[in-house]
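seq:
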Amino acid sequence: MRVSVHYPLDAGRLLLRSDENWERDLAPTRADAKRGRFEFELDDGAPFRYFKPILADRASRQWARGENFLALRERRGRLDVYPHFAEDSSCHVCTAFEVPSSYAERGYDARVFLPPGYDENSLQRFPVLYMQDGQNLFFRDEAAHGKHWRVAETLALLERMCLVRQVIVVGVYPKERAREYTAPGYEDYARFLARELKPYVDTNYRTLSAAADTAVMGSSLGGVVSFYAGWQYPNVFGQVGALSATFGYQDDLLARVLAEKRRALRVYLDSGWPKDNYEITRGMAAALRSRGFHEGRDLLYLAYPEAKHEEDAWATRLHVPFQFFFRS
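struct:
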């Protein structure tokens, strides 16, 4: 099991300890301190190993923050990890700010979630998820009916499980939701996402900017506009999540999927049952399959019995699209 630890080391040594023997230091087999890359071998025949990087000097050992990392013997290639060692007191869900737009009378407010350790380990770049209805993502006191998606809590849990890559989440606040999330208003809104917001985020944060590392997601009408943004700009948004999407209410997306050239996208669709846009979501999944999308590879469709059309239901299953998009 090959592990590459990436860290901007200024002093001391970077070592590893594992659950084979938590008291024994493992030295890197290869070290490039200038590039901040340290390679280790965990090759004792075990099917998996938990491990943790350590900063060491003559007087002390400092363990990396957070949960232990997980290495799997059957994993192809090396495992890249980006630890941080100091207590992270920086803002993870930063204050909402306005991004100017030439497609609206005034700009849109957005809030950015930064993973723990973002400021300390400057070597890491991150995939980005753009989410609609930013007011419902992070805080109960600004969410509709006091219910929110618990985005930060879900990501923290998945990170503890070593299931997903760390990700930057950008929550966008609507101004005129019904207009911006349906045709024809979603045309200008999607232009803002693709041509103004994403370049702003890529310029100001350490992102992985390729379409394959960029997802857009929402629920209900937010799922509609997210699907539209991905279908219209597949070279910008390579992954699309539409939870309980209200397809067909005021859009032509189903007809476009059936008539237009297949897009290079990975799509997550779901709904509750009964109601909750169950039938039209199944129809959209069937349309995508008819255009060559393959279940489990570039399409994941799920239905949740008795799940309601509300934030609590979406929060409960949010981990599923996160795993589909950002599996480590």
